[in-house]
Amino acid sequence: MAITESRGPAAPAPPVSAPVPPGLPMPADKEITLDPARRTVVRRTRGRRFPFPIPNGWFIVSPSDALRPGEVLPVYYFGRELALFRTGSGAARLVDAYCAHLGANLAVGGRVDGEGIRCPFHGWCYDGGSGRCTDIPYTDSPKVPSRARVRAFPTVERNRMVWAWHHLEGGEPFYEVPEVPEFSDPEWSEPYTRDFVIATCCQEMAENNHDFAHFQYVHGTPDIPWDTEQFVTDQPYKRTEAGGGTFVRESFGLGLGVLRTPGAFTFLSSTTPIDEEHVHVRWSWVTPRSLGPDAARDIGDRFLAGVSQDIPIWENKRFVERPVLTKEETGILAHRKWAQQFYSDPAKAID
Ligand code: FES
Ligand SMILES: [Fe+2]
User: What is the pTM of this model?
Assistant: First the structure.
């Protein structure tokens, strides 16, 4: 893939680090990551916090092993009630849950039938790939009406996860979910996976990686890591590198980041929009087996404690469209510009 360098952060000279004010960094407690009831939420305003629609892209909708053959699961992502199922041939399929006939939820009592799903209410059957109704079992009319269909979302299974393509206008995928070889390499550990929900949106979460100053103030790093990052984008792909290659992050759209510290861990970081205001995060770590049986858990728990410091900030902040930034913070704007390609005009959204 041709990588065009588009300069993000200007690699400024590191300013003199001010002493961290008393009371900082934010407290770290991995339990608040996994248990929303323990979080501090003071925000009382309701309604939209972010000016973005749900982004276009590939997003995880389930771990592969959570969807058994013939199983139908109700899921809620992309602001939609959905039915996720595994067909007779083993393919994972995702369709809008509401039946075109009289609106029953296909995931509540619906049954897998071959490559389709049969509605529990009157037995209409929908093909999982196209969403078209293929059978109305009780009419002698020879033709199935063309409007008898549900929206079907393209799916792939990769890295032990089921991914669905969401596009507000119903557009085709314009990038692919990469294979992360460490997830199927016997020299690497089984994944350590944790998932949690955060009241934020994909772009805001990813912006955090380009906000260098917060690493010191929120996470307590000894200095602000200004001067180490390489920032490269190629359409939906983004690559950042810090610490002279000891920390490499590749982003594939707004739904997937793959982070590597060579020799130490590979971290699959995924963010699925639940609606415009909430995301479902799934994080998986694998480590070389030579590092021992607990290495993936140890590194994963460190990341979970780290994000517990971000969560209270994210869940209570607002999005500032025209932020006041210092000259060292232009990477935030570069990230925002890159993210624009994943949004459709909401006026063009299909149902
Ligand atoms: S509502 Fe689904 S078949 Fe009637
Ligand atoms: Fe952070």
Answer: 0.92
